[in-house]
Design brief:
Strand order of the largest sheet: 3-4-2-1-5-6
Radius of gyration: 20 Å
Order of helices and strands: HEEHEEHEEHHHH
Structural class: alpha+beta
Strand content: 25-35%
Shape: globular
């Protein structure tokens, strides 16, 4: 997402060392100049509260802790022109955005869109030039099959993400288990335990999602 289209809180969560994964769980438009959004956020709730207080477009907000490392954020705000433009791209077509929308540290918004193939093709061809659109996967939507990482704990997911980022899973391998443990701030045995449990759960999910091939 280009800099001029990023919301101040998105930029804060991306840049701050105290913040992590951000998911937009649900949202609704109250009027032309007011909408609400409900986020699930991993990070320091106090740092987030201090920053959002200074955002002029935010009218009200409420933060609710989930655990020691994550919280919910309910926000009522004035939509910006970039918000209206992005939303209208979907309203003009018979499409449904399936939450959550995930914001990553590279300013991307990752989401699932369901609709008729002609409408999806029209969305791709006519998406506002302010945004860069990348299609990761196209296929039939079937919610009966949950996401592969659904069984992972936050710590296991964090361990997998760290391992990918440092190069532990590249071929050939670019980083050792020690590097993963250092990034996680734990012992090698603990890091190994997180990874092995996460890998086992992901593999089980993958097998359940994919029909066996009989030879």
């Amino acid at each position: 997402m280009p800099a001029q289209a990023r919301h101040p809180m998105q930029e804060f969560c991306r840049r701050s060392e105290k913040m992590g994964r951000v998911e937009l769980v649900t949202w609704n438009v109250m009027s032309e100049d007011e909408e609400y959004a409900f986020f699930r956020i991993k990070g320091a709730i106090d740092a987030y509260r201090d920053r959002i207080r200074d955002v002029e477009t935010v009218r009200t907000f409420n933060l609710t802790p989930i655990d020691e490392t994550s919280f919910y954020s309910y926000v009522v705000h004035e939509p910006r022109e970039a918000d209206r433009m992005w939303r209208q791209a979907f309203v003009d077509r018979n499409l449904v955005v399936i939450p959550p929308i995930v914001y990553d540290e590279d300013t991307r918004m990752m989401l699932t869109v369901v609709g008729d193939k002609d409408d999806l093709q029209s969305l791709i061809e006519n998406f506002p030039g302010t945004f860069e659109l990348t299609v990761e996967e196209v296929g039939d939507y079937d919610r009966r099959y949950p996401t592969i990482v659904a069984d992972l704990t936050d710590r296991q997911l964090e361990a997998i993400a760290v391992a990918v980022n440092v190069g532990y899973y590249t071929v050939p391998r670019e980083a050792s288990l020690t590097a993963v443990a250092d990034e996680l701030g734990c012992a090698e045995s603990t890091a190994s335990n997180h990874l092995r449990k996460a890998e086992a759960r992901v593999m089980r999910r993958l097998v359940r999602r994919t029909p066996p091939v009989l030879v």
